[in-house]
């Protein structure tokens, strides 16, 4: 999504990004931008006619916590950069800019965003191999993180013990499932919180486990 009030700049961005293989939608104001959610990354100009671009960044970040926001603006003052980043922008590009460089930055942010899974208060970053619960890091072992990723990939669905063992340990694992059960128990304890509506791991008797989007009494 391109949010730019200057028609010439907006149209040039549309044409250039289309040549680079991107599908684009364009908004000439903050109100237009907030009227759609059909985008994967937002390019935001700061000098908008109806609302300051920094405020728009803050609103977009609140609505879409994991969608990249790139400020594309003529303002190059350090305070503007700081304000935009503090408001939730992921990147800051000043005019004039290279379309090739902007395209590369868009691709980088999209690649990074595709590696992030959000389930309720739980955020999993597969590239960084880190998990966060309500913004706070969860201290996981290598196996616990891999189990969490495997369960999150099928959130709400049962994942069999055989599939978890094959994916996290070894497809030819010949021992009992006790090791898996112990790791699941530890992972479940680390996700539990009395103050947060955290996802919960439920047991499907004799079959496997399921990561629920909301806590369960089971």
Account of the 3D structure:
The protein is an alpha/beta fold. Helices cover about 40% and strands about 20% of the residues. It has eight helices and twelve strands. The strands form three sheets. It has a five-stranded parallel β-sheet, with helices on both faces. β1 (about 1-5), α1 and β2 (about 25) form a beta-alpha-beta unit. The longest helix is centred in the middle third of the chain and has 16 residues, at about 100-115. The protein is elongated. The chain starts with a strand and ends in a 6-residue tail after the last strand. The mean pLDDT is about 90.
Structural class: alpha/beta
Round the mean pLDDT to the nearest integer and report it. 91
Topology order in helix (H) and strand (E) letters: EHEHEHEHEHEEEEHEHHEE
What is the rounded distance between the termini? 43 Å
Radius of gyration: 21 Å
For the sheet with most strands, the description reads: 5 strands, parallel
Poorly predicted regions? none
Tell me the β content.
15-25%
The total of helices stands at 8
Helix content: 25-40%
Task: Indicate the overall shape.
Answer: elongated
Strand arrangement within the widest β-sheet reads 2-1-3-4-5
Number of strands: 12
């Amino acid at each position: 999504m391109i949010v730019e009030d200057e028609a010439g700049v907006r149209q040039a961005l549309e044409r250039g990004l289309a040549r680079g293989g991107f599908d684009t939608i364009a908004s000439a104001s903050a109100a237009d931008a907030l009227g759609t959610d059909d985008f994967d990354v937002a390019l935001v100009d700061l000098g908008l006619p109806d609302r300051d671009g920094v405020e728009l960044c803050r609103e977009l970040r609140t609505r879409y916590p994991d969608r990249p926001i790139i400020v594309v603006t003529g303002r190059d003052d350090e305070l503007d950069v700081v304000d935009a980043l503090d408001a939730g922008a992921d990147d800051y590009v000043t005019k004039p800019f290279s379309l090739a460089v902007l395209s590369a930055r868009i691709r980088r942010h999209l690649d990074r965003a595709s590696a992030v899974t959000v389930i309720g208060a739980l955020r999993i970053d597969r590239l960084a191999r880190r998990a966060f619960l309500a913004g706070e890091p969860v201290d996981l072992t290598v196996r616990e993180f891999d189990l969490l990723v495997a369960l999150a990939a099928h959130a709400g669905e049962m994942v069999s013990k055989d599939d978890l063992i094959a994916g996290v340990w070894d497809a030819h694992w010949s021992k009992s499932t006790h090791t898996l059960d112990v790791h699941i128990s530890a992972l479940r304890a680390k996700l539990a919180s009395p103050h947060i509506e955290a996802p919960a791991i439920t047991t499907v008797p004799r079959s496997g486990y399921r990561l629920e989007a909301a806590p369960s009494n089971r």
